[in-house]
Amino acid sequence: MRVVIAGGHGQIALHLEKLLAQRHDAPVGIVRNPDHEPDLTAVGAETVVLDLEKSDVDAVAKALEGADAAVFSAGAGPGSGEGRKDTVDRGAAVLFADAAQRAGVRRFIQVGSINADKADDPGHDPVFAAYLRAKLAAENDLKARDLDWTILRPGRLTNASGTGRVKIAEKTGTAEIPREDVAAVLLALLDTPATAGRTLELVSGEDSIADALSRI
């Protein structure tokens, strides 16, 4: 399986790329900074250098040619302002979906955020509210497309070691989840085409990933 991953140098993406390479699939990570290419090569991924804030749909579609699936796992990251939440978390996601359709890649998995529909809740600072609005706008754009999409909304991300024990549902409640476990669930979603058309929340839980997916 050839899987092209936007945000290829992110921590979740690096875990996913390693998992794909370990089972002899072909992960391809899109990175903005060429200095990051060795980190992807080290986990067994191919690299494509593209800035999704500046590229056009033809350039991104070329990177997606021949892929079996696309995974959007990019984000503006900590320290970025409201503007980049829109250009990356929404704009780059829309561009990546446009490119997937142009390249004929139907399977599309997008990493969103738990509580993406709660940007207006009191207590959010303006940048975090902008992040949630961008994630929700990207979700709504994807849902309107003729793609076999799945949206995965993880809870609060941690760098703890993965446990392989999760809770996956349309609504889970807010809790934490190790990035390593998010990557493992993304791998399982790639193997579970029946999850197309679903928006799923993910937090740590008691079930194995296989059991959790079998119950949704």
What share of the residues does DSSP label as strand, in percent?
15-25%
Low-confidence stretches: none
Briefly note the structural class of the backbone.
alpha/beta
Give the tally of β-strands. Answer: 11
The biggest beta sheet reads: 9 strands, mixed
Q: Roughly what is the average pLDDT, rounded to an integer?
A: 96
**General shape:** globular
Q: Name the strands of the widest sheet in spatial order.
A: 3-2-1-4-5-6-10-8-11
Describe the structure concisely.
39% of the residues lie in helices and 24% in strands.
Task: Walk me through this protein's architecture.
There is one protein chain. The chain is 39% helix and 24% strand. It is an alpha/beta fold and 216 residues long. The strands form 2 sheets. It has a 9-stranded mixed sheet, sandwiched between helices. It has a two-stranded parallel sheet with strand order 7-9. 47% of the residues are buried. The mean pLDDT is 96. It holds the Pfam family NAD_binding_10. Residues 7-193 form the NAD(P)-binding domain.
